[in-house]
């Protein structure tokens, strides 16, 4: 009997109306805003912002914040307007990741400059000047230097690249001074647009060429040869910067945390990348997922993926979305695989929930370009694979008629490329249009009949208005609806 009562109570819990969940009050305590003006100026380097605005002779400036800093945005904007007597706008929800400079949103107000606060991927922009204001997290320099010395003493002859997460980059010079006795160290500089003449190593080329020899993933430094023996990253293990550099070089990768230097292994992630490349080889239709409109060269990347797919007789569809998620991409079940064009630090949340796999341009090159040698080194920067890029490999002329069929490692079926129809016939049902507002639109006989075709951003056509207080409450009863009398179904049927 007691078991029956327990089951009944459990069933009652499963079949409840859910009013307790809807009406539950959650205690949310956001980080308090900075009350002192001097603290605000120092933390966000606002004097430097004023100097930059005056130096560039800007009249309309946009401020971009991550979600964690939006509570300080109004204070900063009002202070900058007071100091410069120019219009300052705050960008709301970014079109793409908060690490990317949102040039698309800034063009709604015809801005001539952007100040980006918080973490940044440092991808080059194509239209507007940008000033980066980086966060400054606390780092125990003494403990960090001691841990690095202990580690380097065991590998004293190895060429070592030391990278800093953006939030710890302000400690670079202090740590560099503590490690001055080591000769084979290379300290990466940030490609943030500032004119830095700091030498990165004892063999730095700055004295002769006035620039470092390598520029990769938002960092610049001088390499003695093509390979590194090891990389030491000062920052958290979860940082995408660490992963991007670990797969870019063949040397051993370490990271510093909690007073110790630990080694890094991303073998499982790399193995998954190889699996996704096999999925691309088997795919008959490829979706080009445009997840940035601000990084320079994204249109050339679109053309590159189309050329790779056409050569393998695969249909292409261009999909432009702001922030990709599983629900958005599920609207296109006819697409087998996506190749995403984004900044190097873009991360798909809940990637395992996606119905189709999502690859980068580097993986598409290894899968579809037969002239590219197979290697375990991958660059997450798509600009390396477009014409003029460091890893660009031109496609061979001619067709694939003489290519021997291979066997799929996933389906055990023979893969072969037929050339019964020309590439124009294969892709005749779709074309790409680039509109004047820099968005990419798909025109396809298969997709043009869809009811929903996306939102028109209407750049430059939306009037800027002041924010007003809107509705408050929940959908089951907003605050302005609670005082209204309840109307029953019987009231509509007069007797």
Distance between the termini: 49 Å
Shape: globular
Count of DSSP helices?
15
Helix content class: 25-40%
Q: For the report, how would you describe the main beta sheet?
A: 5 strands, mixed
Average of the residue pLDDT scores: 79
What Rg do the Cα atoms give? Answer: 27 Å
Percent of residues in beta strands: 15-25%
Low-confidence stretches: 1-16, 419-443, 491-495
Structure summary, number of beta strands = 22
> Would you tell me the structural class of the helices and strands?
alpha/beta
| Sheet with the most strands: spatial strand order | 6-5-10-11-12
What does this structure look like?
This protein is an alpha/beta fold and 495 residues long. The protein is 26% helix and 17% strand. It has a 5-stranded mixed β-sheet with strand order 6-5-10-11-12. Strands 2-1-3-4 form a 4-stranded parallel β-sheet, with helices on one face. Strands 14-13-15-16 form a 4-stranded parallel β-sheet. Helix 4 (46-56) crosses helix 5 (73-84) and helix 11 packs across helix 14 (361-368). It is globular. Residues 1-16, 419-443 and 491-495 have low confidence and may be disordered.
Give descriptors for this structure.
alpha/beta, disordered C terminus, 22 strands, 4-stranded parallel beta sheet, 495 residues, single chain, globular, 26% helix, 5-stranded mixed beta sheet
Task: Explain briefly what this protein structure is.
The chain has 495 residues and is of the alpha/beta class. The chain contains 15 helices and 22 strands.
């Amino acid at each position: 009997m007691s078991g029956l009562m327990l089951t009944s109570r459990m069933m009652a819990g499963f079949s409840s109306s859910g009013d307790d969940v809807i009406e539950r009050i959650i205690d949310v305590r956001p980080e308090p805003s900075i009350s002192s003006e001097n603290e605000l100026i120092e933390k966000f380097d606002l004097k430097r912002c004023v100097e930059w605005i005056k130096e560039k002779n800007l009249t309309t400036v946009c401020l971009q914040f991550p979600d964690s800093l939006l509570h300080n945005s109004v204070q900063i904007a009002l202070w900058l307007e007071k100091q410069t007597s120019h219009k300052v706008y705050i960008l709301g929800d970014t079109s793409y990741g908060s690490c990317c400079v949102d040039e698309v949103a800034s063009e709604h107000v015809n801005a001539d400059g952007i100040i980006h606060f918080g973490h940044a991927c440092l991808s080059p922009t194509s239209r507007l000047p940008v000033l980066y204001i980086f966060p400054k997290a606390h780092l125990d320099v003494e403990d960090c230097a001691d841990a690095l010395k202990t580690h380097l003493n065991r590998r004293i002859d190895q060429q070592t690249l030391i990278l800093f997460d953006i939030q710890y980059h302000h400690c670079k010079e202090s740590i560099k001074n503590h490690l001055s006795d080591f000769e084979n160290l290379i300290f990466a500089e940030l490609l943030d647009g500032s004119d830095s003449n700091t030498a990165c190593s004892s063999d730095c080329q700055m004295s002769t060429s006035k620039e470092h020899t390598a520029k990769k993933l938002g960092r610049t430094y001088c390499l003695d040869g093509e390979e590194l023996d090891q990389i030491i990253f000062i920052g958290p293990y979860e940082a995408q910067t660490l992963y991007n550099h670990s797969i870019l070089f063949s040397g051993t990768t370490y990271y510093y945390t909690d007073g110790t230097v630990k080694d890094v292994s991303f073998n499982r992630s790399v193995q998954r990348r190889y699996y996704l490349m096999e999925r691309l080889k088997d795919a008959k239709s490829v979706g080009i997922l445009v997840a940035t409109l601000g990084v320079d060269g994204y249109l050339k990347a679109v053309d590159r993926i189309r050329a790779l797919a056409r050569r393998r007789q695969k249909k292409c569809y261009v999909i432009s979305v702001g922030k990709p998620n599983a629900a958005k991409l599920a609207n296109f079940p006819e697409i087998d695989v996506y190749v995403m064009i984004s900044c190097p630090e873009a991360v798909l949340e809940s990637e395992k929930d996606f119905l189709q796999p999502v690859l980068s341009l580097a993986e598409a090159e290894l899968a579809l370009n037969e002239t590219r040698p197979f290697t375990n080194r991958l660059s997450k920067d798509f600009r390396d694979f477009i014409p003029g890029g460091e890893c660009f490999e031109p496609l061979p002329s001619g067709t694939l008629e003489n290519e021997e069929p291979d066997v799929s490692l996933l389906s055990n079926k023979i893969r072969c490329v037929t050339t019964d129809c020309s590439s124009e016939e294969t892709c005749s049902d779709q074309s790409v249009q680039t509109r004047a507002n820099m968005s990419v639109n798909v025109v396809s006989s298969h997709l043009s009949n869809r009811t929903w075709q996306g939102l028109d951003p209407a750049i430059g056509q939306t009037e800027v208005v002041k924010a007003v207080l809107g509705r408050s409450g929940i959908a089951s009863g907003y605050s302005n609806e609670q005082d209204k009398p309840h109307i029953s179904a019987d009231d509509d049927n007069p007797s």
